[in-house]
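Hi Q.,

Before the meeting this afternoon, I wanted you to have the iron/sulfur cluster prediction in hand. No need to reply - just skim if you have a minute. The sequence and ligand are here:
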Amino acid sequence: MSERKLPKFIICFCTGECPGFAKLNLWKLINYVRNELDVEYAIIHPQLCVTDGDQFLRDYLKQGDKDSVFIIGGCDPRMQRKMFKDVFTEKGLDFDKQVVSLDLRNMETEEAMKKLAEAVNKIVGG
Ligand code: SF4
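Predicted structure with the ligand bound:
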């Protein structure tokens, strides 16, 4: 029996100090995603676009893992692509096919929940 592959959710919370995320209740959002949505798991990173974030992605991504789908919540998808594409390529993954980038800046928590639910449902066909 083939198992349904669930997306893995990573939220980049922009250090926790960025005004763009001031309206977002991080814990409410992450617990909603991990408990209510069809994801494999949900994790938080404080700043994916700096050296330790890069190092985290390098350790976290499995070499040649073409099956996983990642939802990354954070800043502008174009910025995310620019910042993360290389490490995905380096690990043999295809950023454009395997990553759904969501801009969660300047959103209320409920708005972000809705956006995430839509993204997950689109991936799992809910
Ligand atoms: S990747 Fe985007 S959301 Fe994350 S810390 Fe950098 S600018 Fe902020």
